Amino acid sequence: MRSTRVSAEAFDETLKKELNGTNKVFVLFFGTELPETDESWCPDCVIADPLVRKALLPVENSVLIEAAVGSRAEWRNASSNPYRSRTDFTIPAIPTLYKWTTSGAGERLVEEECADIEKLNAFVNSA
Question: Is 114 a catalytic site residue?
């Protein structure tokens, strides 16, 4: 597994680049890290992050695109959040882990599903 962090501005370009080839692309939307702790402000994201990485590690040709959604205030202000205002996919809560294909956003795990080892392993292994 390889991971890459993207800004909202570089999101589409990075997806396009990673989808060219045989990569299995996963996108994890999570709350931005707090400077004082280097951990997300979202407790569910803190729990899910290492589990997602561990599940993806053995998946050949997998790419994890890390998309921080901003601070708690930026996330809650849906009208101005660059990810929540998209019409081609939705992020109902964070963390959200998507499988992405050339057709766009596919299956997803949301919130506590991202920390459910059985669901997570089944999700990444069906890619």
Answer: no
Q: Is 45 a catalytic residue?
A: yes
Structural contact between residues 81 and 93, judged by C-beta atoms closer than 8 angstroms: no
Residue span of the structural domain in which 21 resides = 2-125
Residues 109 and 96: beta-carbon distance below 8 Å: yes
Per the residue annotation, which of 15, 27, 28, 45 is the catalytic one? 45
The CATH code of the domain that includes 107 is 3.40.30.10
92-122 residue pLDDT tens: 999 999 999 989 999 999 999 999 999 999 9
The number of domains in the chain is: 1
Q: Which of 27, 42, 67, 109 is catalytic?
A: 42
Asked if 108 and 25 count as a contact pair (C-beta separation under 8 A), the reply is no
